[in-house]
Amino acid sequence: MKEPRSFPLADVLSVTTDCLLSRRHMDGLYSILGYMTGQDLFTHQLIAAADACKPALLAQHPDLAEVRPPADIDAPDLMAWLAEAERVHGESVMVAPLDSWRHRDPIEDACDQVGADKVFLPFAD
Predict the structure, then answer these.
(1) Domain boundaries, the chain
(2) Residue 95, H or E segment
């Protein structure tokens, strides 16, 4: 099992709040979810991974359960809100990977989500 690793608070909050707050945008989300699942995720797998990782992150950091940005906040105020959250909770937090994630085949996931007849497999026999 992998050792816990430090991640920016903004990346963690991107998972726990369902708001993309990472300063690295989608790269931050791919990074934390990939680390926690131990899998290189495809875009269509991010929601399932986030759904699995969110409770684990909140169990690891219960103090973040109520940390979420106000609903109708504009971008400059959102950055000020994030800076205050980092001041209170730290700019980074330690994150442990999931024990329970089962490797998911990205093609099978796509077939399950949209139907096998809609997934184009150019090299299939």
Answers:
(1) 5-118
(2) strand 92-95
Token code pair at residue 37: 């699942």
> From the CB of residue 6, how many other CB atoms can be counted at a distance below 10 Å?
10
The model's confidence at residue 2, banded by pLDDT at 50, 70 and 90, is confident
Collect all residues with Cβ–Cβ distance below 8 Å to 49 and sequence separation of at least 6. 33, 36, 37, 39, 41, 101
Query: Which pair of tokens denotes residue 99?
Result: 């024990």
Per-residue model confidence as pLDDT tens digits over 33-86: 999 999 999 898 899 999 999 999 999 999 999 999 999 999 999 999 999 999
- The tokens for 39 are 């899998």
User: CA 56 → CA 24, 77, 84, distances in Å?
Assistant: 22, 28, 24
Q: Which of 26, 29, 27, 21 is nearest to 80 (CA)?
A: 21
What pLDDT score does 44 carry? 87
Its pTM stands at 0.83
CB atoms near residue 85 (< 10 Å): 20
Structure tokens at 69: 């940005």
